[in-house]
């Protein structure tokens, strides 16, 4: 068996890339790895097809420990006051309430589900493959869920659907929202909040993972953090031990609920997101989670996409690479470039990064939100056809635009196939109704 996102020989190339991104000098370690027969190209799909020699695997384990010991010249703060001090201009909370909030909350949960579903079949397929699939089925540009009807066999062979999603995420077979990690985490975090309250800790999140989250349904940084917890590392250590995925998108997809229970309070949404995200992520991975929570918070009280983006950017450290990427994406979204040229520009700027990194996907999310003008059917396809993390980017854009428009403002062709239910691998929650989730989320809002 070749387990993805876990084999030491597959982690070393990813860690070398991550270490260099943090300004570490790892040239000597890289040379030792290459001299022993190791490769430097990170695996796109999570695991190399063949196991290495026992000697190379043992060396990989040793080098991962050595790489963790290399210090960066710019260490980030590890406590919330230190992180908060890096922020500038976080606004005071905005007062909210009324029936409109209930509709917008339902829109956010539904939009996240539909946006995720839209991108599920083509997860791991690059931009050119997605376009070829759509053109060959006469559905370009993308305006609806994907279909295999009319797809030529040679195109299907060249660009196979995501294996788990082909059976439940195409127009012809959608029957409710299928299981997906982009929904598992919001569901799990809702349960954490209901159990531990608004003062939950990182330990509470870790305990919830171990109690309810199947290890096989974790990926990248979450899989590493899960392993580290089982190895006896504390929750505040788990993100920093042999974890080359610590700045990838995994934390960003987990934190919408913290925004939804703090509508108009992006600062508190970001603090809660940080409490969760520090279990598995650092630096831009952490800040991406804070930004996503702030987007969710802002979407429930704002009147335009520009207002959402302006509020959310206040919780991202101003001098960070993430802040620059978000600004660049939003600027492209507002530019006169057509969609193809704007996506070309995004790929030129961030195509060097893995398809599930935080930086490139955050730039894409900002682009899609800005260009959408608030239109769900305009914004989500842009997040999908870019060919990065199609379901995760689609989910976040869908969440924001659903919160902004409310359930009443979402097109029925995207909401009806959801059947008001979500499948999940979490115990006791499979088939949970979306409108019930919205009601439970509203119940967690702070008392005024």
Automatic annotation (TrEMBL):
Its cofactor is Mg(2+). GO terms for molecular function: metal ion binding. SUPFAM superfamilies: ADP-ribosylglycohydrolase. It comes from the Bacteria. This is ADP-ribosylglycohydrolase. Mg(2+) binds at residues 389, 391-392. Coiled coil: none annotated. InterPro entries: Ribosyl_crysJ1, Ribosyl_crysJ1_sf. Keywords: Magnesium, Metal-binding. Pfam families: ADP_ribosyl_GH. Gene3D superfamilies: ADP-ribosylation/Crystallin J1. Binds 2 magnesium ions per subunit. The keyword Secreted does not apply.
